[in-house]
Specification:
single chain; elongated; mainly alpha; 145 residues
């Protein structure tokens, strides 16, 4: 009976350890996911997840702590936006002035296509009435023997 109790205690201990390991893996995955959406304010072209700077390490630790506290992605992002501004988000929200930044490249492509179309149409629509007498071929200038 004593061996049964010891075996049950060991299994329980292993089960708790496995559950904690699974929980920590989930926390690390979620931390990496959220940190990859935040910009490192030191490097400015890397995410917090990819940056080797000390500040990025501190930011990752803050994200990890907030994930462990059960905060959502939006709450964590709002915390960093309140500290560093919207610049800290690698993908800015699509609203307000940022909507113009998201839509302007597509608008420029459409406008450029329209200009190319109009120029090509004018170039191919040269009327024969507009030609001068010099441009017209004549038979009188040919040497006929």
């Amino acid at each position: 009976m004593r061996w049964l109790a010891i075996g049950a205690a060991c299994l329980l201990w292993l089960g708790v350890g496995t559950a904690q390991a699974a929980g920590s893996v989930e926390v690390e995955d979620r931390t990496r996911e959220i940190a990859s959406e935040l910009r490192c304010v030191v490097c400015q072209n890397l995410s917090v997840a990819d940056s080797p700077s000390d500040l990025a390490k501190e930011m990752r630790n803050l994200v990890r702590e907030q994930v462990q506290q059960g905060k959502s992605r939006e709450e964590i992002q709002a915390y960093f936006v309140s500290r560093y501004g919207e610049y800290v988000l690698l993908s800015p929200p699509k609203r307000g002035f940022n909507l113009l930044v998201w839509g302007l490249p597509f608008l420029a492509i459409v406008a450029g296509g329209g200009v190319v179309y109009l120029v090509a149409r004018r170039w191919t629509e040269q009327s024969p009435v507009g030609r001068s007498a010099v441009d017209r071929p004549t038979r009188s200038g040919c040497n006929a023997n």
